Structures are given as C-alpha cells and as structure tokens.
Amino acid sequence: MSKETLASEAKKYTQKKRTTKAMKPLTTRRYLAGQALSGILSSNRGVLIMSEVKREAYAWADYMLEED
User: Fold this and answer.
1) What is the pTM assigned to this prediction?
2) What is the predicted pLDDT for the residue at 2?
3) From CA 34, how far away is CA 57, in angstroms rounded?
C-alpha cells in the first residue's frame, strides 16, 4: 500500500460524519468495565475467550457500583 493511498484513506476517515446514534454514551458502568478490562487483559498470560472477558469486566463494574 502506497503512502498516498494510506494518507487519502486516513483523510476520508477523519472527515466521515459520525452520528450520535453510532456513538454510545460513556456511562459509569462502561467506564468501570473498561478499567476492569485493562487489568484483566494485562494480568493474563494465556488465550482468552472474548465473551468471557467482557462478562467478567462488566461483573467487576457491577460489583464496584453496588451499594454497601
């Protein structure tokens, strides 16, 4: 792939209109799940099943949001 092609592709991408429907709002739960996901991925040394990792990240987020 030439530099011109890559540069023009990048330019088209940045000029693309993004609708609010396509962007999901960042909720506290999503933020916490992202933080948990970071820790889960950095501490693992093997092959991961994505659906299980996602479930675990949201489980941690829900745990952190529980009332004491």
Assistant:
1) 0.64
2) 62
3) 7
